[in-house]
């Protein structure tokens, strides 16, 4: 039985950092790390940067349902046991709903929600007690953000799905963690849509990818279902839950627009 970690969005940013930390043994003993993203070249670069654990690449577009068949087939052929599933592939476009446009709004739902559901469905039959799923939500999933309507809604979906699944799967020893970071300097911000809206929102500041990933791994190993790595975002999350939505959105308009 091969012990495998699967990381989506592994060619860049958070996913790439998960691969690095797995290669350094932060996720316990692994035989292979399977990495998924569209860019074959960048996946190969990530694979060759790993020195301790063997890496297998799957270059595919996760907005296409058939993309999962290659990974599913490999799971069957290898009789693999999935120790970790990291759903990090995702993107967000800033701006009002109409300016983001129908294609990008739909693609955010396909990648940030549908692909996560499909990856979990694919992985669960290969998971055992002790297996862990980490889903990248966002602070925008915990506190809905103006000028990020679809993205916030997709990440709220990921947050709720993760916590419900954690509750459901806990009796069989499989735990699910949602991670809600604030901004990080990754490819996520390279092409954000409405640049002015993105700059306004980024006033909340950035956190370091390395720390987000190490805190997430620690929380997952402890069997927690939620990780908001930034202390001030944990406070903001609690405060936002006490506010009516209209007041929250008015405050965000005043702060970020
Ligand atoms: N960075 C932030 O400020 C921030 C904050 C909160 C939450 N997040 C969340 O964290 C996660 C990771 O984002 P990141 O910061 O690491 O951004 P990133 O550097 O842009 O990485 C995104 C990853 O997703 C892959 N990807 C994009 N579209 C794909 C598709 N259709 N099929 C397969 N793979 C695809 C990209 O690779 P290819 O282009 O090669 O496909 C890349 O590996 C996302 O879910 C994001 O929403 C990010």
- Rg on CA atoms, Å: 18 Å
Give the CA-based shape: globular
Strands of the largest sheet, in order across it? 3-2-1-4-5-6-7
How many separate domains make up the residues? 1
> What is the CATH class?
Alpha Beta
CATH architecture: 3-Layer(aba) Sandwich
Strand composition percent = 15-25%
CATH H-level name... which superfamily? NAD(P)-binding Rossmann-like Domain
Percent helix, as a range, is 40-55%
Residue ranges: pLDDT <50 for 5 or more in a row? none
Alpha carbon gap, first and last residue: 53 Å
The distinct ligands, each listed once, are: NADP nicotinamide-adenine-dinucleotide phosphate
- Mean pLDDT over the residues: 97
Major sheet: 7 strands, parallel
Number of helices: 11
Structural class: alpha/beta
- What is the element string, with H for helices and E for strands? EHEHEHEHHEHHEHHEHH
Number of strands: 7
* CATH-assigned fold name: Rossmann fold
Summarize it.
The chain is of the alpha/beta class and 257 residues long.
List keywords for this structure.
257 residues, Rossmann fold, 7-stranded parallel β-sheet, 49% helix, binds NADP nicotinamide-adenine-dinucleotide phosphate
């Amino acid at each position: 039985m091969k012990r495998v970690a699967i990381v989506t969005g592994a060619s860049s940013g958070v996913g790439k950092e998960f691969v690095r930390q797995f290669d350094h043994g932060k996720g316990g003993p692994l035989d292979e790390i399977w990495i998924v993203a569209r860019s074959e070249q960048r996946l190969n670069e990530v694979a060759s940067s790993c020195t301790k654990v063997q890496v297998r690449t799957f270059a595919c577009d996760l907005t296409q349902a058939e993309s999962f068949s290659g990974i599913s087939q490999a799971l069957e052929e290898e009789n693999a046991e999935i120790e970790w599933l990291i759903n990090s592939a995702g993107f967000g476009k800033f701006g009002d709903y109409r300016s983001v446009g129908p294609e990008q709004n739909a693609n955010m739902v396909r990648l940030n929600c549908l692909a996560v559901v499909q990856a979990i469905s694919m992985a669960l039959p290969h998971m055992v007690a002790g297996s862990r799923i980490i889903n990248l939500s966002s602070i925008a999933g915990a506190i809905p953000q103006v000028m990020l309507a679809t993205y916030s809604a997709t990440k709220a979906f990921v947050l709720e799905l993760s916590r419900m699944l954690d509750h459901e799967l806990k009796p069989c020893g499989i735990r699910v963690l949602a991670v809600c970071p604030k901004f990080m300097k990754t490819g996520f911000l390279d092409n954000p849509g409405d640049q002015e809206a993105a700059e306004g929102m980024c006033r909340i500041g950035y956190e370091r990818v390395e720390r987000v990933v190490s805190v997430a791994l620690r929380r997952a190993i402890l069997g927690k279902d939620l990780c908001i790595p930034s202390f001030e975002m944990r406070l903001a999350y609690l405060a936002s839950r006490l506010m009516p939505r209209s007041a929250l959105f008015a405050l965000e308009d005043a702060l970020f627009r």
